Amino acid sequence: MLYAAPREGEPGPPRSGFVVGRRVGNAVVRNRVKRRLREAVRARSPALVPGVDLVWSARPPIAVADFAAIAAAVEELLRRARLLRDRRPGQVGPATERAAERGARRRPPAGPADAAAMTT
């Protein structure tokens, strides 16, 4: 789950906080989930709009998800919250190239948990 709040009068890079409750698992599992979430968000941080605070709340299904599923869920949540900067027309990046290679068809996230299960 993603909570977003704009910062008034304090523009700057987006800030993220992570909440992983005990229902997700023991301390080892919770720390692994936080590391994976942190890395997935860090990889998308250059594309985020500035001046926003984000709070990421992990749900129990994330404990068994692989990194690709977590990264896909992060991407989907940022897209749905409209927190990703728009690309300039004609700009090509890794995501655009991958979509073109696979014929722009969507595949479900890999792993036993999907994005909806991890975020509800």
What this model shows, in words?
Strand 2 (15-20), helix 1 and strand 3 form a beta-alpha-beta unit. This protein has helices at residues 27-44, 67-80, 94-101, 115-119; strands at 2-6, 15-20, 52-58. The chain has one domain (2-119): Ribosomal Protein S5, domain 2 (2-Layer Sandwich), CATH 3.30.230. Residues 89-93 and 103-112 have low confidence and may be disordered. It has 4 helices and 3 strands. The protein has a 3-stranded mixed beta sheet, covered by helices on one side. The longest helix has 18 residues, at 27-44.
Overall SS class: alpha+beta
* Distance, first to last CA: 7 Å
The helix/strand order is EEHEHHH
Helical content stands at 25-40%
The strand count comes to: 3
Return residue spans where pLDDT drops below 50 for at least 5 consecutive residues.
89-93, 103-112
CATH fold name, please?
A: Ribosomal Protein S5, domain 2
CATH architecture grouping: 2-Layer Sandwich
Query: β content, as a range?
Result: 15-25%
Number of helices: 4
Radius of gyration computed on alpha carbons: 15 Å
List the helices and strands and how they pair.
Elements: E1 2-6, E2 15-20, H1 27-44, E3 52-58, H2 67-80, H3 94-101, H4 115-119
Parallel strand pairs: 2-3
Antiparallel strand pairs: 1-3
Helix pairs in contact: 1-2
